[in-house]
């Protein structure tokens, strides 16, 4: 294959198209800051979209559940190994990506005889100065850093529309309740903005999404005495959010 560069490039291009087509119907995961931390949310057919990774790190996944779980376990093992061998302050997303899964994902994607990972990952972190950062990881190992929030979505047009709305919103001034409601609102607005007559999106409104899927949400909250900042939103908090969204 390497003796024929054109065929290798053609194979890589085909793999990009194949993975993007597989991810196209994946529902977005949104992560944004708020007054006392960061929050992450997303709709899914069944629970298993948002996870705690380490004391100050959370992970959201989109794509094939088996691939997301395999990478989650890899990151989890790396985080605990870094924390044990060095210190908890050395467990950062940048280290886990740069020295961990990003090179592995790139190698996997470029070895065209192996099945590619069908994933996109979104990570959020609060450092020991309580500064929030957001990271988006692609199936080919490419990763980006964001300060104002980030999103992963199978549909590129939807991802771009959501990213634009996140960029133009000052989430850091909002309470948790207001940030949750605003994140849900921009989810709905972005879907409606890109919808056309040929759209086959199964849920264009929050009402349809609540009826069809489960909303998962979690926060990294600095308003706590615990070392671990992660907590999932309770059923009561989700129900309160649902009523606010539909009122």
What is the element layout, followed by pairings?
Layout: H1 5-23, E1 29-34, E2 37-44, E3 50-54, E4 57-63, H2 65-85, H3 93-110, E5 119-126, E6 132-137, E7 143-146, E8 150-152, H4 156-167, H5 176-194, H6 206-212, E9 214-221, E10 230-232, H7 235-246
Structure in a nutshell:
This protein has helices at residues 5-23, 65-85, 93-110, 156-167, 176-194, 206-212, 235-246, and strands at 29-34, 37-44, 50-54, 57-63, 119-126, 132-137, 143-146, 150-152, 214-221, 230-232. It is α+β, with helices and mostly antiparallel strands and 247 residues long. Keywords: Proteasome.
Question: Can you characterise this structure?
Answer:
It is built from seven helices and ten strands. The chain has 247 residues and is an alpha+beta fold. It has one domain: 4-Layer Sandwich (Glutamine Phosphoribosylpyrophosphate, subunit 1, domain 1). The protein has a five-stranded antiparallel beta sheet. Strands 3-4-5-6-7 form a five-stranded antiparallel beta sheet. Helix 4 (156-167) crosses helix 5. One of its GO terms (cellular component) is proteasome core complex. One of its GO terms (biological process) is proteolysis involved in protein catabolic process. Keywords: Proteasome. This is Proteasome subunit alpha.
């Amino acid at each position: 294959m390497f003796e024929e560069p054109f065929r290798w490039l053609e194979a890589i291009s085909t793999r990009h198209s194949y993975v993007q087509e597989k991810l196209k119907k994946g529902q977005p995961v949104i992560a944004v800051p708020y007054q006392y931390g960061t929050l992450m949310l997303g709709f899914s057919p069944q629970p298993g979209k948002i996870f705690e990774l380490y004391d100050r790190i959370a992970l959201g996944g989109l794509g094939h559940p088996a691939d997301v779980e395999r990478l989650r376990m890899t990151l989890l093992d790396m985080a605990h190994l870094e924390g044990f061998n060095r210190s908890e302050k050395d467990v950062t997303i940048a280290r886990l990506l740069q020295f961990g899964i990003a090179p592995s994902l790139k190698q996997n994607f470029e070895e065209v005889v192996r099945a590619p990972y069908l994933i996109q990952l979104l990570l959020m972190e609060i450092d020991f100065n309580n500064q929030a950062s957001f990271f988006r990881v692609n199936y080919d190992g490419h990763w980006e850093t964001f300060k104002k929030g980030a999103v992963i979505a199978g549909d590129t047009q939807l991802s771009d529309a959501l990213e634009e709305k996140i960029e133009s919103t000052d989430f850091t001034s909002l309470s948790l309740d207001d940030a949750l409601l605003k994140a849900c609102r921009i989810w709905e607005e972005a879907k409606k903005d890109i919808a056309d007559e040929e759209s086959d999106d199964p849920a264009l409104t929050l009402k349809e999404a609540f009826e069809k899927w489960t909303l998962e949400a979690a926060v990294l909250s600095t308003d706590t005495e615990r070392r671990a900042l992660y907590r999932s939103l309770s059923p009561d908090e989700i129900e309160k959010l649902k009523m606010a969204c539909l009122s």
